[in-house]
Amino acid sequence: MWQRIFDHEGIRRLLVTSSIEEIQAGQTECDPAGVERYFRQVRRFKEEMMALIHMSAGAPARATELISIQHENDSQAQSQRGVFIDNGMVVFVTGYHKGYKMGRRVKIIHRYVPREVGEVMVYYLWLVEPFVPSLQVIARRQCDYCPWMWQPRPEAEWAPGEDAAEEGEREEAAAMEEDAAEAGGEDADAWSDAEEDWLSGVVPQTIEAAPRNVDGFGDPDRVRRVMYRETEARSGVRTGVAMWRNAYPAIQCRFCHDPSVREALDDIYEAPRAGAGDASIASVRARQAGHSPRMEEMIYGLLLTANPIATMTEQAQFRKVTIDWHRMLRFASSWIEHAVDADLEQRRQKEEQRARQRRWDRIRRIDIDATMTQLYGAEARLRGIQRPALEAMVAQVPRVLAIMRTGGGKSLLFMLPVAATPDDGVTVVVVPTISLRQDLQERCDREHIPCVEWNGKRPLYHAGIIMVMPESAVTKAFGRFIDEKRTMQQLDWIVIDECQVILESHADWRPEVLKLCEMAEKEVQVLYLTATLPPSEDPRFYQAIGVPEADVVRFREATTRPNAAYRVVEYPRGEEEAEVSRLVEEREARYPPPGQIVVYCKTIEQAKGMAEVLRCSVYHRHVGDTAMKKTILLRLTRHMDGRPDRIGCEEGEERCDVCQGAPCGSAREQCRQ
Q: Where is the region Disordered (predicted)?
C-alpha cells in the first residue's frame, strides 16, 4: 500500500505532505485532515461490511456476537481469532453463552459468507487492516492496536452479573419497539457525541477508554443503527437486528432449495419432539461404542488440522444451511458445479423452467386491444406498424427493430405490454437524453404505469419500467441488477429508445454508448426504436449492436416529413452572431407564438454569447440545479400539444431550429445538424 502511495501522485497528495526526497530519507509526514478522511471511509466501509455479513451469512448472529469477532489471535492468548477460510469460503466463527449455566458449554457457530463477500473481506484483511495501524502511528502517535473487527465497548458498560448476549438481545428488541412506537425515530446515521468528538480530531488519549480501532466502539445500539441505515437505503424498509433474527428462519424455511435444510432449520428453531432421537448410522455406531457422536468426533480419529472446538459434522451442517441461503439470495458462486448435488441442480433447473414457462404464458395472454382501450379509451386505435410490432413483442421474437416517424407512437410498443401486466416483470428502457427520460416519465405517470429512474445506490424493485441512461446501463451495478432479474425470470424486455445514437457515438463522444451491444447478450427480448435509420445504414447498425441481420425482425414505416424543410444560409466569416440575429428576427414574424425558434450552438460559451445577443433563455448542462434545469427546459420546449421536446418535432408543432456554425462530421451527423 505504501509503495502504491509513493508511486501514485494523486493518492500521495491525499495522505502525505512529505516530498519524494523526504520519503526516500525515511521522513514521512501525513496530512492529518487527509488521514482522518480516510479513517472515516474505513469506518463507513466496515459498517457496510457488518450489515452485509449479517444478512448474507445465514442465520443472523446477535449483535454482541457480531462485534466479538477478531481477525487475529490476542497477543496475550486470552482470545482467538474468528475469521477463517474453509474449503475456499470465508467463515466467521463466534461463540455465545446463552444457556451456559444449563449445559456448561459455549456454543460455537460457523457462519459462511458467499465467495463474492469473502473476497472483499480477504482484500480488506490483506491490504487495509495492516495499513491502518501504520497511519495511526504516523498521524496519531498511537502504538496500541486491537485485534477486533469491530471493537466491542468495554464490558463495564454492561450491567454487572447479566449475561451479555441476553442483555444485547433485550436491548435490540426494546429499541425496535421504541422506534416502531415513535414517529420519525432516531436518525440511522446519528453518532454519539463521544464518537463525533473523537472522529473530528480530538486526541484519543484525552478521552477515557478511547477505542483502539479507527472506527470507534461497537455495541448493540450501533449495530442496530447501521442495520437501519443500510436496509432502508437499499430496500426501502428499516430492518433491525432483532427483526431480522425473527424474519430469517421464516424466509429460509419457505424458500430453501434443499429439503434437508428445512429439516435442519426445524430442529434449530423448533422444540424437538418428545422421544425423538438421532437414528443415523453414525449415532448408532457412537452409542454402540459407549459415547455420544460428538465425543467420537472430538476425540477419536481427530485430524491435526481439524477444528478443536467444533466437529466436522457441525461445520458441514452450518455450511450446508448457509450455502442454501446464498442460493436463495442468488449469489452466483453458490451454484458452482462441483459444489452442487446432482439432484439439487436438476430441481433448480426444473424450477427455472417452470418460472420461464409462467412468464411466457403471462406475456402471451396480453390482450392488445383491451389494454389499448383501457389506456386511451374506446375510440383509440392502433396505427401504422404498431400492431405487427406489438404482436412480435407478445410472441417473444428475440430481436425487434421498429422504425417509426417521430410522434408515431414508438413508446406505446413497450408501455402497452407493461400496462397489461402491471404486477409482474420489469422492462428496462435505455434513453439517451434527460429530456426524453422526463417525457417518458410524465407519460407513464399519466397512464398510472409504475416507472422509475435507475438508482445504483438504491435499486427499486417495484417498478414496471426502469429508465436508465446508456452510460449507466453498461455499469457493473446495473449488469448485476439485470442478471438478478433475468435469473429470477422477472426481466421481460430491454428497450433501446432512439437507438441510432449507437451509430453517432465514437471514442470522443459518449463512448460508453458503444457498449450497448452487450444488451443483446442478456438472453432476453430486445426492442430497438428509432425514427432516423435509413435503409442504407442498416448493415452498419446491425454490426454496431452485434446482431446478425437475419436475427432481427424489422418493421419500417415511412419517416419522411412533408411539413419539414431544410435550408442552408451562408454568411461572411466573422458575422455569425449578426446573421443568426437577423435570421431569428425574420423567422419570428413567420412563426408567432405559440410557435418557437430554437437556436442550437456547438459550445456552452457560444450559447451564452448568443443568449445575450438575442436576450433569451439559455439551457446547458451547467445551468442551475436539477429543478432549475427542468423549469428552463419546460419553458424552452413546451409546444402546442403541451409536451416537452424529444429528438425531433411532434406532429402539429410549428418551430424553427437554427443550428449555428458550419456542419461537420459524417454525412449522418450533418443531416442531424
A: 157-184
Mean pLDDT of all residues in 232-241: 86
Q: How far is CA 555 from CA 194, 363, 522, in A?
A: 67, 20, 22
pLDDT given at position 545: 92
CB 39 within 8 A of CB 28: no
Residues 6+ apart with CB under 8 A from 448: none
What is the per-residue DSSP string for 357-368? Answer: HHHHHHHHT--H
Residue with cell 495511526: 136
- Given the DSSP bridges, would you call strands 426-430 and 465-468 parallel, antiparallel or unpaired? parallel
Helix, strand, coil proportions of the chain in percent (round to 5)? 50, 10, 40
Cβ–Cβ < 8 Å for 73, 62: no
Query: Among the residues of 16-128, which ranges form H helices?
Result: 20-24, 32-56, 63-66, 100-103, 115-123
- Cell numbers for 34, please give them: 487527509
Question: CB burial class (10 A; 0-12, 13-18, 19+) of residue 490?
Answer: middle
Q: Are 647 and 443 in contact (CB under 8 A)?
A: no
**DSSP E strand stretches across 15-129:** 83-86, 89-96, 107-112
Q: What is the pLDDT of residue 365?
A: 86
The contacts of residue 558 (CB under 8 Å, 6+ apart) are 405
The residues near 460 (Cβ < 8 Å, ≥ 6 apart) are: 236, 452, 466
**Structural domains of the chain, with CATH:** 2-70+115-243 (no CATH), 359-556 (3.40.50.300), 576-672 (no CATH)
State pLDDT tens for residues 179-206.
444 334 444 344 444 444 444 444 444 4
Residues 6+ apart with CB under 8 A from 154: 209
**Cα–Cα distance for residue pair 567/570, rounded to 1 Å:** 10
3-state secondary structure of 494: strand
Between helix 115-123 and helix 32-56 the angle, nearest 10°, is 160
Q: Where are the alpha helices (DSSP H) in 429-569?
A: 434-446, 470-473, 476-487, 501-504, 538-545
The C-alpha atoms of residue 347 and residue 350 are separated, in whole angstroms, by: 5
Query: What per-residue confidence (pLDDT) applies to 460?
Result: 64
Amino acid occupying residue 16: V
Q: Which tens digits make up the pLDDT trace of 83-101?
A: 988 888 999 988 775 655 5
